[in-house]
Write a structure and sequence with these properties.
The complex is a heterodimer. By secondary structure, chain A is of the alpha/beta class. Chain A has one domain: Aldolase class I (TIM Barrel), CATH 3.20.20. Chain A is built from 16 helices and eleven strands. In chain A, the strands form two sheets. A nine-stranded mixed beta sheet of chain A has the order 7-6-5-4-3-2-1-8-9, with helices on one face. Chain A has a two-stranded antiparallel ribbon with strand order 10-11. Chain B has one domain: Coenzyme PQQ synthesis protein D (PqqD) (Arc Repressor Mutant, subunit A). Chain B is of the alpha+beta class. The chains are: A alpha/beta, B alpha+beta. Chain B: Keywords: PQQ biosynthesis. Chain B: Pfam families: PqqD (PF05402). Chain B: It comes from Bradyrhizobium macuxiense.
Chain lengths: ~400, ~100
C-alpha cells in the first residue's frame, strides 16, 4: 500500500485520482471525513524476517489477535462509516486460517479488498478461494530479482521461487498484481532487473519503495542505507522506466527521505486521511505509531466506536492539523503541504514526536542526520538483524564473510 | 490481461474489468470507481458513459445514444467518449469484451 500515492510528485497520479479530488474539498479546520481506505493488519505472524519490516519492534502475539468475529464486526463498521477499500496486511495475512472468510465478509459488506502478502504461504487453491471470495487486488512483496539476494533479505530459503509462482497464479486468475519492491543499499543494483521481472510477471503496478527508517529498519539502518549515488541512479532508472512502460506498468516511487530537502507528507498528514488497525485491535494513525511512547491508542475492543476514535481520541488529535506545531514548522509556508513530515521519524531521531521531522532541511537536526546516513552508507556494515518475536536475531557471520569475499573479487 | 494496451475505437465494446468497480458512495454522495490503490471520482458525463460500458454496446452505439440525449453533434461526442475511455484504458481501468471467434 502506498500512503504517498496522491502526494508523490514522481508518481504520474492522474488528475482524476479520487484521493486528490475528494481530499481537496476539505480544509484542515473542518471535521475529518472517514478515510477512503483502511489498512487491516490482521496478524504480526510472518514466515519472513525482513530486516526493514514495517511492523513495530514490539510485535503483537498471536494470542492477542482479534478473533474472526471481531474482525467481521470491524469490517461491517468500516463499510457503514463510508470506508471503501480494505487492505489486508500483516505480518502475513494468509497466516490467519480465516483469511478467506474475512475477504468474503469484506465483499459481503461492500468493501473493495486488497491482499498485501509475502505470498510464501499461498497455494493455488487458497488463492483461487480468495478470488472467489471477491478479492480484487493482490500485492506481493519481492526482496530482489533472484534468490541469492532475495532469500537472504527475507531470511527464508526458497521464498523467491515461491513468490514468482504465486505471482503467476495471480495473473492466471486475472487478478490485478502489484509487485512491491522494498529497496535499500544491498538490492538497489537489481532495480533494472526488478522492473523487468514485474513486466515479465505481467504486473499492473510496481511500487519501488525505498526503506523508511523506523522500527526494524532503524535497527538495521547501517546495513540498509543507500549511498547518495545509488539514489541518484535510482531516480534516473525509475523516471526512464516510467516513460518507457507507460500503459504497460505503472511505477510508483517512494524516495528515501534522509537524502531529501523536504519531508514527506507522511500518511497525508497525521489523522487526516488514514488509519490502520493492529492485530490486537488498536486504531492507529499509522502502522508505526505505536513506536511513539507516551501516546495512548484506543482499541476496537473498547466501548468506543471506530468513528468516535477517529474523531475524538487523544492520539489522533495530538498531531492533527497545524496547531501542535513548534517552529520552524509553525510559521513555515509549507506547513499545510507536508504537515511537518513524519511523527514517528521525529520521535525516533529526536526523542520528541512533536519536533520537526529531521528529514526537513529546516530542522536543526537535518545536517547531522544527512551526514550520518552518508557515513553509514559508506561503511559497508552489511549484516542484518532479522525481524522476529524474540526481538531480532543478528545474521550469522559466515554469510558476511562470503559477501566480503565477493566484494574483494575472491 | 486483456485490460491493457487496448485501443478504443468506434467498434470497441468496452467494459469495466472486475477489479474496477463503479459504485455510488452513499457516505459522500458521489460516484466512484474503486481500483487497486485508487479511488477515482468520475464526473457526471464519465459516469453516464461508464454505465453504458457493458461489454455489449459498441462505442459507436454509445455515441448515438448520447447524441440523441444531449442533442449534440455525434462527431464531437464520439471524439470525447473515445478520448475519455482511452484514458481509462491506459490506466488499466477499462477492458474490452473478448471478440467472439466465429
Amino acid at each position: 500500500m502506498s500512503d504517498t500515492l496522491a502526494d508523490n510528485k514522481t508518481t504520474a497520479a492522474p488528475p482524476s485520482d479520487g484521493l486528490a479530488v475528494l481530499e481537496s474539498r476539505r480544509s484542515a479546520a473542518e471535521t475529518f471525513g472517514i478515510p477512503l481506505a483502511v489498512l487491516a493488519e490482521v496478524t504480526h505472524r510472518c514466515p519472513l524476517q525482513c530486516p526493514y519490516c514495517s511492523n513495530p519492534v514490539e510485535l503483537d502475539r498471536g494470542s492477542t489477535e482479534l478473533t474472526t468475529d471481531e474482525w467481521k464486526k470491524v469490517l461491517g463498521e468500516l463499510a457503514e462509516l463510508g470506508v471503501l477499500q480494505i487492505h489486508f496486511s500483516g505480518g502475513e495475512p494468509t497466516a490467519r486460517k480465516d483469511i478467506v472468510e474475512l475477504v468474503q465478509h469484506a465483499t459481503d459488506v461492500g468493501l473493495y479488498s486488497n491482499l498485501i502478502t509475502s505470498a510464501v504461504l499461498l497455494t493455488k487453491d487458497k488463492l483461487s478461494a480468495l478470488a472467489d471470495a471477491g478479492l480484487s487486488h493482490v500485492q506481493i512483496s519481492f526482496q530482489g530479482n533472484e534468490p541469492v539476494v532475495a532469500d537472504r533479505v527475507a531470511g527464508l530459503k526458497d521464498a523467491h521461487r515461491k513468490k514468482l509462482e504465486v505471482a503467476r497464479w495471480t495473473r492466471e486468475l486475472e487478478l490485478p498484481l502489484t509487485v512491491n519492491a522494498v529497496m535499500h543499499r544491498q538490492n538497489l543494483h537489481q532495480l533494472p532487473n526488478i522492473i523487468q521481472m514485474a513486466v515479465d510477471l505481467d504486473a499492473d503496478r510496481l511500487e519501488v519503495a525505498n526503506v523508511q527508517y523506523y522500527g526494524w529498519a532503524l535497527k538495521n539502518r547501517a546495513a540498509l542505507m543507500p549511498t547518495i549515488e545509488q539514489i541518484e541512479e535510482t531516480s534516473r532508472i525509475v523516471e526512464e522506466a516510467q516513460a518507457r512502460l507507460k500503459g504497460t506498468l505503472a511505477i510508483d516511487y517512494v524516495v528515501p527521505d534522509y537524502y531529501a530537502l523536504r519531508p514527506k507528507k507522511c500518511m497525508g498528514g497525521w489523522g487526516r486521511q488514514f488509519f490502520n488497525i493492529s492485530p490486537a485491535g488498536k486504531v492507529l494513525p499509522c502502522h508505526a505509531a505505536e513506536s511513539i511512547t507516551g501516546l495512548e491508542f484506543e482499541s476496537v475492543r473498547s466501548n468506543h466506536s471506530i468513528a468516535w476514535i477517529w474523531q475524538n481520541s487523544e492520539a489522533f488529535n495530538r498531531y492533527r492539523g497545524t496547531g501542535w506545531m513548534p517552529e520552524p514548522c509553525k510559521s513555515c509556508e509549507f506547513r499545510e503541504v507536508d504537515f511537518g513530515g513524519c511523527r514517528c521519524q521525529a520521535f525516533a531521531l529526536t526523542g520528541d514526536a512533536g519536533n520537526t521531522d529531521p528529514a526537513c532541511s529546516l530542522s536543526p537536526r537535518h545536517e547531522e542526520i544527512f551526514k550520518q546516513a552518508e557515513r553509514e552508507a559508506a561503511a559497508h556494515q552489511d549484516r542484518f538483524i532479522y525481524r522476529n518475536f524474540a526481538g531480532g536475531t543478528l545474521e550469522t557471520d559466515d554469510r558476511q564473510d562470503e559477501r566480503q569475499d565477493k566484494r574483494n573479487g575472491a | 490481461m486483456a485490460s491493457r494496451n487496448i485501443s478504443v475505437s468506434e467498434t470497441s465494446r468496452p467494459k469495466l474489468p472486475r477489479h474496477a468497480k463503479l459504485k455510488f458512495d452513499e457516505t459522500r454522495q458521489v460516484w466512484v470507481i474503486l481500483a487497486p490503490e485508487r479511488v477515482l471520482a468520475p464526473d457526471e458525463i464519465a459516469v453516464e458513459v461508464l454505465q453504458l460500458c457493458d461489454g455489449v454496446r459498441s462505442v459507436s452505439e454509445m455515441a448515438d445514444q448520447l447524441a440523441v440525449k444531449y442533442a449534440a453533434p455525434r462527431e464531437a461526442i464520439t471524439t470525447d467518449v473515445i478520448a475519455m475511455l482511452q484514458d481509462l484504458a491506459d490506466k488499466g481501468f477499462l477492458t474490452e469484451a473478448r471478440e467472439k471467434t466465429s
